[in-house]
Amino acid sequence: MANGYNGKILHVNLSEGKFRVEKPDETFYRKYMGGSALAMYYLLNELGPGIDSLSPDNVLVLALSVLTGTPISGQSRITAAAKSPLTGAVGDSQGGGFFPAELKFSGYDAVVIKGKSKKPVYLWIKDGEYELRDASHLWGKITGEAEAIIKAELEDNKIEVLQVGPAGENGVRFAGIFSMSNRANGRTGMGAVMGSKNLKAVAVRGRKRPAAANKVALNELAKWGAANLEDSDIAGLAKYGTAETTGSNQTSGTLPTYNYNSGVFEQWEAIDGTTMYDTVLRGAPEGNQDRMGRDTCYACTVRCKRVVELTEGPYIVDPHYGGPEYETTSTFGNYCAIDDLPAICKANEICNMYGMDSISCGATIAWAYEAFNEGKLTLEDTDGLDLSWGNADSMVKLTEKIAQRDGFGDILAEGSERAAKKIGRGTEAYLITCKGQEAPAHMPRVKRSLSVIYATNPFGADHQSHEHDPAVEDDLEFYKERLAVLGFSEMQEPRSLGDEKIRFAAVSQRMYSAMDSLNLCQFVFGPAWQLYGPEDMVALVRVVTGWNDVTFDELQKVGERRLNMMRAFNAREGFDRKDDKLPNKVFQPLIGGVSDGWKLDRAEVETAVEKYFEICGWDVSTGIPTRAKLEELDLDWVADQIDL
Amino acid sequence: MKIQLQLYSILREALPSESKGRAVLKLEEGATLADVLKQLGIKRRVVISVNSVLERDHSRQLRDGDEVKIFSSVSGG
Q1: Number of domains, chain B
Q2: Would residue B27 count as lying in a domain?
């Protein structure tokens, strides 16, 4: 293998049952690096505009990067991209686990999937060989069962399986793609696309480890991370999980509660990461949760993933399905004013069993809760479920009904925006969507750079597309050297949305975009509090690929290239500045606690979006990339596609 | 004076494990939040609330009976 990558892309036409192996040259890999940028290349070239996202015409790309599978923390991640059935715009989602590394070991850097199989199938790749196998017996199975059957029939327990659950088969518009039955490419409905193709799973196994150009230097970088983890700012996130942030978000007034009407949740301590660690992690009763209640991704020493086990009480939870992240404890918890941690763990288990994005699922349920509490939905609408704020049992039942498209669940399976349109009665007022995707648990009324990113992000509201405001609002001393690499040294006022804050949003977004193209974990690599900083990211690319002249600016260009290709994709679909908007709710004041009365100003956000477009080099009136910008990024072919 | 202290997540390890991060801390009159962090050996960037209100100023002087909560500071999801 040549320095990190296989040099092979597998193309699968499910309609014809045919395969093709493409062997791009080094210039291709250096230009796109992998992951999300590489996926965009194929979506723009192989998917025509205006297609139905759930038809055989959609193209699903599963892509790794030049770094995937190397022995260092934070690299075993995969991009799933296609046209989104939730937003109608570009769909993009990142996931971790052991599957990404194993796909690399099996001999390919990406799989491009077209068409639709006549009957359910799964794709089996082993050491460069590939075949489609019948999956009729797997259709309708939950993730854990399907995974076990595949491993048994292929007689290898070390096979990694990426799959859709019943939700993806049922076309739930926010269905995800799952590996290990608990790692999700959750957002933008990629599971619904995969299910619509009658592709149940991709199973992989391989022995071909990627070679690094400088193995000694790579080992040194990996060792440095392991040695510095305990003293780093992610030590808490590693041990207590992402939900350790619940308390700091509560304190800062940015814990979305009552469907984003408040930024504080009085009972937050019942559902935070510290309580999870003490009570629901596997091994917690005996004090063995560090050993038994944490899990990891390939070669990652951080071990931030949660493993919950509940063997008694109203909610039994199987540890095979992992445990909730902060986003999940928020959407099923504080969004719905629910403080029942076992119930939240159960909802998380259902999402992982059936294969659904827990952000959109929980947030869609929270929309229904607000509509019910405002008298716009009745028991007749909800199949008799009482959706009063705080009702945990109804939340769990509704989660399962959505996965099965049963009754009221069938309406919610369309996502909150389509559900509001169908129900009417003024329920659009309760939406928290951008481009049709439900907002995650970080609040633009508090962290104001999120207002620009949520509004403009090509695949809808997303919290992992830039570095949030606290990095530049508190004492910069902690991250001075890292932020200087991005060109920032001035502390910003809390809740400000001035020029420097907007520039920070745009520049840090490019870095996050580069990380999604290098398929790097955003807890392990990043511009501030993460284990590794921007210069480490450059060093990693150099030592793995041997591209010793790679610079941070070049990686930023890769990130910018991805964003421009995404905006161009959306332009082909008819999206422009009119679609770069926030839900009305964020212009209304928050209620209660430290953030009481805080709201966004429409004119200020509009101005900020214009400034952001200017920084990006996009047409300020349309938000579409200019030919000059695309040519600067060596994307002339994209400019030709959108008739610039 | 005495303050009520609650540490969360990894910061709990500044106190004996059986305390679960809770302690009553004896401080000199005029002691500040920075003094508390120093006494606990906490060098990480943190988010602090005093009597349930966010406090960014670590030079703030504490009063007898204050309730101080300290969290680690990351923006993860």
Answers
A1: 1
A2: yes
Q: Which residue of B has its CA nearest to A593?
A: B53
DSSP symbols for A317-378: B-GGG----HHHHHHTTGGGT---HHHHHHHHHHHHHHTB-HHHHHHHHHHHHHHHHTTSS-
Question: What is the mean pLDDT of each successive set of 10 residues along chain A, which is 644 residues long?
Answer: 87 98 98 98 97 98 98 98 98 98 98 98 98 98 98 98 98 98 98 98 96 96 97 94 96 97 98 97 97 98 98 98 98 98 98 98 98 98 98 98 98 98 98 98 97 98 96 87 96 96 98 98 97 98 98 98 98 98 98 97 98 98 98 98 87
Q: How far is CA A349 from CA A142, A173, A325, in A?
A: 11, 19, 12
pTM: 0.98
- Which residues span the domain enclosing B26? 2-72
Distances (CA, A) of A393 to A141, A220, A481, B36, B41: 24, 50, 48, 42, 43
Whether B77 is covered by a domain: the verdict is no
Contact A236 B54 (CB under 8 A): no
Cβ-contact A86, A190 below 8 angstroms: no
Whether B45 sits inside 8 A of A594 (CB atoms) is no
Query: What ipTM describes this predicted complex?
Result: 0.95
Sequential DSSP letters for A383-409: TT----TT-HHHHHHHHHHHHTT-THH
Tell me the CATH number at B65.
3.10.20.30
Q: Which domains does chain A have, with CATH numbers?
A: 9-205 (3.60.9.10), 242-435 (1.10.569.10), 449-581+601-641 (1.10.599.10)
d(CA A70, CA A450): 33
Taking CA–CA distances from B11, the nearest residue in chain A reads A236
β-bridge pairing A60-63 and A110-114: antiparallel
* Contact between chains at B10 and A244 (C-beta distance less than 8 A): yes
Nearest residue on chain B to A522, alpha-carbon basis: B76
- Tell me whether residues B74 and A237 touch, CB distance under 8 A: yes
CA distance A365 to A336: 8
Residues 10-69 of B with CB under 8 A from A: 10-12, 20-21, 44-45, 47-49, 53-54, 56, 69
